Amino acid sequence: TTCTASCSAGGSRAWTTPCSSASGSSTASAAASRRASSTTTATSFPSCVRSSAATSRSARRSRTPASSSTRIASSRRGGRKMLARFKATDSHELKCGMDEILEAQRKGEINEDHVLFIVENINVAAIETTLWAMEWAVAELVNHPETQQKLRREMDTVLGAGHQVTEPDTHRLPYLQAVVKEALRLRMAIPLLVPHMNLRAAELGGHGVPAESKVLVNAWHLANDPGLWERPGEFRPERFLEEERHVEAGGNDFRYLPFGAGRRSCPGIVLALPFLCITVGHLVQNFELLPPPGQGMLDTTEKGGQFSLHILKHSTIVAKPRVF
Ligand code: HEM
């Protein structure tokens, strides 16, 4: 509900650290971001692009040590060179998101800095999140051989042994989808989502939320609350085929928001879910995934990052090829 309230009240977002101990710098960068985005409100570019481009710059300013700022500066120089080689495609051709961004630059709605920040933002939002989710899914499968077996059986039965899973196949593999959903539930990659900000005052569950509050949604708790889920601490993909079969990852149920919900939810869900299904599917189809020799189970102690929940210790697992 928090998420929807903030979205319907304007859907702005402060890309700042959710950590209260850093509130000084985050408040400063949130204020800077509001200022930055308010200077561009006359443009017709979508608000999500305006604010993420401007705020990522202010957020990074407040937390980047000198050594990495040198790296960023040089990678930005490289980015500028690459950018110079690209042109927005002809308007009659099929367009992708990048064309829209270049088109906005051409019209003067955003500048080159904005383009680079948007691309960098998308890269971070897309690559790390997917990587963490994949690591969790593999770790849970290593620790649950019976789930692996059941998944392998589903793919062998539906696709035929040896037929490599492709994206259209994933729609015929409900257990594969359930495995991915369960990994995203139990080990939510972005447990507090990304901080939201309500532009207007709102009321939520009888509580007043002043305008421009930083709103954190504890999506991990919503998805792991024993009052809301049956045995939530267990990795049990079957729940998404049984009592929770109507729950989707796209935000149709506020107990399960691995990608957020509403206007500022993750646009990458259309890429991330098939990608996770295909990768996990391929691995399980072709290999038996086992813990390192001499180790019964993988250590799945969690580590929290700035926004993330990832695995503390990386392990080298054994992937034993299957004989078809
Ligand atoms: C398993 C993979 C992924 C997970 C778990 C994930 C999760 C999230 C979450 C929780 C948010 C914030 C939603 C909110 O606060 O309401 C978000 C935002 C975002 N994600 Fe993802 N994401 C994933 C993959 C991707 C991919 C593949 C892309 C791009 C290709 C992407 C692009 C973005 C962008 C651009 C935003 C910001 C949207 C905005 O501010 O309006 N994500 N993601």
Automatic annotation (TrEMBL):
Disordered: annotated segments: 1-36, 51-81
Keywords per UniProt: Heme, Iron, Membrane, Metal-binding, Monooxygenase, Oxidoreductase, Transmembrane, Transmembrane helix
Positions of heme binding: C266
Topology class, membrane: Single-pass membrane protein
PROSITE patterns linked: CYTOCHROME_P450
UniProt KW Oxidoreductase keyword: yes
GO MF annotation list: heme binding; iron ion binding; trans-cinnamate 4-monooxygenase activity
Enzyme Commission code: 1.14.14.91
Phosphoprotein keyword on record: no
Compositionally biased residues, Polar residues: 1-19
Protein family per UniProt: Belongs to the cytochrome P450 family.
Protein name (database record): trans-cinnamate 4-monooxygenase
The organism of origin for this protein: Aegilops tauschii subsp. strangulata
Organism taxonomic ancestry: Eukaryota, Viridiplantae, Streptophyta, Embryophyta, Tracheophyta
